[in-house]
Specification:
Layout lengths: L1 E2 L5 E2 L13 E4 L16 E2 H14 L16 E4 L20
Antiparallel strand pairs: 1-2, 3-4, 3-5
């Protein structure tokens, strides 16, 4: 993939910018109280939202977000991009006292 002069990706051999569809997520308004750091109803990169929630979870001492999906369908709506399941495979929480 090449970049155009305004840094938009374009397909090889094409003069038109390629359409890049990133996965986006937004918090459902009825779930706003569960994630006070997020603005309910605002679309943002799903990866960025997941990273934010994971960081908040780790800062609060919880390891729950390390298993399974970070962005649950019951709390978030999604659009664009490709869904790959959204699960963090192979990541385990470190046990206290373990090195």
């Amino acid at each position: 993939m090449h970049l155009t002069t305004n840094n938009e990706p374009r397909s090889r051999g094409s003069k038109k910018p390629a359409r890049v569809l990133r996965r986006e997520a937004r918090l459902r308004p009825e779930c706003a109280g569960l994630h006070p750091g997020l603005t309910a109803g605002a679309w943002d990169s799903a990866a960025m939202v997941a990273d934010r929630l994971l960081a908040d979870s780790l800062m609060s001492g919880s390891h729950a977000a390390l298993r399974g999906r970070v962005l649950l369908d019951s709390y978030f709506e999604f659009r664009g991009g490709a869904s790959r399941g959204g699960e963090r495979d192979g990541i385990r929480a470190r046990r206290e006292g373990a090195e």
